[in-house]
Amino acid sequence: MNTGVRDAAAGYIAAWRPSSVPPQAACFARQVVTAAAPAGRDRAKNLLWAAGKLAAWAIPLGLEPVPGVLLHPSVIERFTAHAPGLSGAARRTLRTNLRFIARQVVPHLEPATAPLPRQRAKAPYTPAEIDGYLALAAAQPTAARRARAAGLVCLGAGAGLIRSDLRNVRGTDVCARSGGVVAEVRGGRAPRAVPVLARYHAPLLAAGRSPARRS
After folding, report:
1. For residue 158, what pLDDT band results from cuts at 50, 70 and 90?
2. How far is 188 from 1, CA to CA, in rounded Å?
3. How far is residue 106's CA from residue 108's CA, in Å, rounded to a whole number?
4. Residue 18 and residue 157: Cα distance in Å, rounded?
5. Strand order through the sheet with 192-195
6. Per-residue pLDDT at 53
7. Closest Cα partner for 134 from 182, 206, 184?
8. Cross-strand partners of 175
9. How many CB atoms lie within 10 A of CB 2?
């Protein structure tokens, strides 16, 4: 960082004595913003405002104005969520700036990122397995069950629909369009038209034409 810019920021911080912030809160703000070493006067001004607002809110509550207390993540979250008289935009800006100061001044208070367990994606069904499921669907004892079973296989494997999406597709929602086949998901959280893979077109259209699947 340019030495002149750094010196200008340091001078601004040292001289910062706002009338809107109590002296003890301003002192805390100067301390932590100096330690954060902001890049430039404008950045220093924004950080001082954030730290001063935090301290002015916290000190009357009995919190000690030291970095390890006021820059604790739980204190920052409570301040930005519940301090009175702040707009939504101001709360977001304050939280961003206070988190920045905390990372620079008390990095040990930031929770470590814990590794989360990962699961490998399951291998897709093979064409032979899909053929087996379609054969099971075709072997159902009634036309209604045959149509529903075939529709489930084709919509799941051919269009990637699961859970509530499957419940929100009827036979009348399956149609040929623009040289392909689409399934209209009309309910649930994400209504949309979903294209179907080509190998599932014929059995899905047949299932959709069945009276059992049209309602």
Report:
1. confident
2. 53
3. 5
4. 65
5. 174-177, 180-185, 192-195
6. 96
7. 206
8. 182
9. 9
- Which residues, in sequence order, are CB contacts of 124 under 8 Å at separation 6+? none
Residue 157 identity (one-letter amino acid): A
Element (H or E) spanning 174, and its range?
Answer: strand 174-177
Q: What is the mean pLDDT of residues 146-168?
A: 85
What pLDDT was estimated at residue 2? 65
What mean pLDDT is predicted for residues 79-104? 94
Are 117 and 131 in contact, with CB atoms under 8 Å apart? no
Report how far residue 164's alpha carbon sits from residue 111's, in angstroms, rounded to the nearest whole number.
37
pTM of the model: 0.53
The dihedrals phi and psi of 68, each to the nearest 5 degrees, come to -65, -20
Rounded to an integer, what is the distance from CA 27 to the centroid of its chain? 37
Residue with tokens 């699947």, as numbered in its chain: 213
C-alpha pair distances (Å), 141 with each of 40, 137, 147? 77, 9, 11
Q: Distance of CA 118 to CAs 104, 115, 121, 123, Å?
A: 31, 9, 9, 15
| Nearest residue to 54 via CA among 107, 100, 110, 111 | 100
